From TrEMBL:
This is Cytosol aminopeptidase domain-containing protein. Belongs to the peptidase M17 family. The keyword Hydrolase applies. It comes from Hyalangium rubrum. Residues 347-354 form the Cytosol aminopeptidase domain. Keywords: Aminopeptidase, Hydrolase, Manganese, Protease. Pfam families: Peptidase_M17 (PF00883). SUPFAM superfamilies: Zn-dependent exopeptidases.
Length: 515
């Protein structure tokens, strides 16, 4: 496991006794922002001198700047003025992204215990900006799993060990720490390569990561009870280390259970496309097609630390490799899923929805519509990125909409720098997957890539709804397509994992449980 950064709050800069750098993040013009930051006279003079020497810094420098000051902790101030925050489209990401860059720069300069001072604009939409900034800054300490495990790894000269955030309450600091514990696990599981985190090695990581947390972990190696998932895994069965499994995570609260969250996570450890093989370099980065399972695991870890009263959580992570070989399942096959629904395969590269359908069918079997919510999380389609760019694509059925689940999640995301875009399932989506012959009940996909298909991420929701046996039930069902946010920038082979939308999910669940 990656080392956790200690996160604390302080009433003022001088209260951070062990600090070795002062990091200042505020919107330009910085001279105006300085008046409300509570800097000492000596600190103000050092910043004023830097602004006088560099006009670009005063107007919002594109990069953090290190300023020497004997009055500052560690003798250094890192200035990171952002562009002015004046538009209603500006949100806390302006500050959180600058905080991450500035704290990284402080560590490069030799600091391991910086104190972060953020000039937060007034207004309700910035009410959780400090938590967002703390999360972003703490996340810079994470190092990829395989880099940490490499025998040739060279430890950096300085590492972030402690982060103190001025004006962050102790309760908020504990919240950030819990969230970062989950996000670290998520990042590890997203980026681990196809061999390092082959299905059973993914499961082993979970067993180790959840030891002592109160989360019960079990691993099902026999996946015959998940026929659609097993079909995806057919060609991988000939290689023992690539064989599939279903990882179950269960968190039971102290006291009576009042709500149950049931999560299905897509865990495709490598996606070749199967018999409909990916071409034109499309396989690069496909070891990150397990981002949904990684996010589900990270969410459960964060919730285990938060101990939300009355909330029971069960997550099923479908870990499978979509290999190509003589045993590959193929288009035109008709497979009866766990729900009893007959599925005609339209394209073997549309494998994630098959995995989710079986997992959701299993979760549905013990779900109480009055107290349960079904949630699927997946890097499901390229279309969601084509439609929304770097935002989560959220879609829910009528029962979930009546409860306002996505509305609550969206409100949380706006405050925490994880905004989402939502759509509504339409009749055309269900017509798109309607059976073409009496031999099947639903069609898994068309023959085109999702990015070339109108409503290319809504159709898969309709398929999952039908194939899981949810269509027509009163069970609230929410689907999050995280293909556009799993890494940043949106380069699946080289992008840095975000851990989004774990923070907004935890916040939304806590709000709903309190309400």
């Amino acid at each position: 496991m990656s080392k956790r950064v200690v996160i604390e709050g302080a009433a003022e800069v001088s209260a951070a006794k062990e600090a070795d750098a002062l990091v200042i993040v505020a919107p330009a013009p910085l001279r105006v922002a300085l008046e409300g930051l509570g800097l000492s006279l000596e600190g103000k003079r050092a910043v004023e001198a830097a602004l006088a020497a560099d006009r670009a810094l005063a107007e919002g420098s594109p990069a953090p700047t290190v300023v020497a000051s004997s009055a500052a902790p560690g003798g250094r101030i890192i200035l990171a003025p952002t562009a002015p925050i004046v538009h209603d489209t500006d949100d806390c990401r302006v500050l959180s992204e600058a905080s991450a860059a500035a704290v990284s720069r402080a560590v490069q300069a030799g600091a391991s215990n910086p104190v972060l001072l953020v000039g937060v604009p007034k207004g309700a939409r910035f009410s959780r900006a400090l938590e967002a900034c703390a999360l972003a800054a703490a996340g810079t300490a994470w190092e990829p799993l395989e880099a940490r495990e490499s025998p040739s790894r060279r430890a950096p000269p300085t590492e972030l060990r402690k982060l103190t955030v001025v004006n962050l309450s102790s309760q908020a600091a504990a919240w950030v720490s819990a969230l970062e514990a989950g996000r670290m696990i998520c990042r590890d599981l997203v980026t681990g390569g196809p061999e390092r985190l082959a299905p059973l090695r993914f499961a082993a990581y979970c067993e180790e990561a959840f030891a002592g947390t109160g989360v019960k972990v079990s691993v099902q190696k026999d996946v015959s009870g998940y026929p659609l998932l097993a079909a995806v895994a057919q060609a991988s069965m000939v290689v023992e280390r690539h064989r599939p499994c279903v990882v179950s995570l269960e968190l039971v609260p102290e006291g009576p259970v009042t709500r149950t969250l049931l999560i299905a996570g897509k865990g495709v450890t490598y996606d070749t496309g199967g018999a409909d093989v990916k071409t034109d370099g499309g396989m690069a980065g496909m070891s990150r097609d397990k981002g949904g399972a990684a996010t589900a695991a990270g969410l459960v870890r964060a919730l285990a630390e938060r101990k939300v009263p009355g909330l029971r959580v069960v997550a099923l992570l479908g870990m499978v490799r979509n290999s190509i070989g003589e045993e590959s399942f193929v288009s035109d096959e008709i497979i009866t899923g766990r729900s009893g629904v007959r599925v005609r395969i339209g394209n073997t590269d549309a494998e994630g929805r098959l995995v989710l359908a079986d997992l959701l069918a299993a979760l549905k079997e013990s779900a109480d519509p009055a107290s349960s919510v079904l949630l699927s999380v997946a890097t499901l389609t390229g279309h969601v990125y084509r439609a929304f760019g770097p935002y989560v694509g959220a879609i829910e059925n009528g029962a979930a909409r009546a409860q306002g689940f996505i509305r609550t999640l969206s409100e949380a995301g706006e405050l925490l720098g994880e905004p989402l875009e939502s759509t509504v399932p339409r009749r055309e989506d269900y017509l798109f997957v309607a059976p073409k012959a009496p031999t099947e009940d639903v069609l898994s996909s068309n023959r085109l890539a999702s990015v070339d298909t109108p409503r290319g991420h809504q159709g898969p929701f309709a398929f999952i709804d039908v194939a899981a046996g949810l269509r027509g039930s009163q069970l609230p069902f929410v689907h999050l397509d995280i293909s556009g946010v799993v890494v940043t920038p949106a380069d699946w082979q080289a992008g840095r994992p975000t851990g989004s939308p774990i923070a907004s999910l935890v916040e939304a669940l806590e709000v709903r449980q309190r309400g």
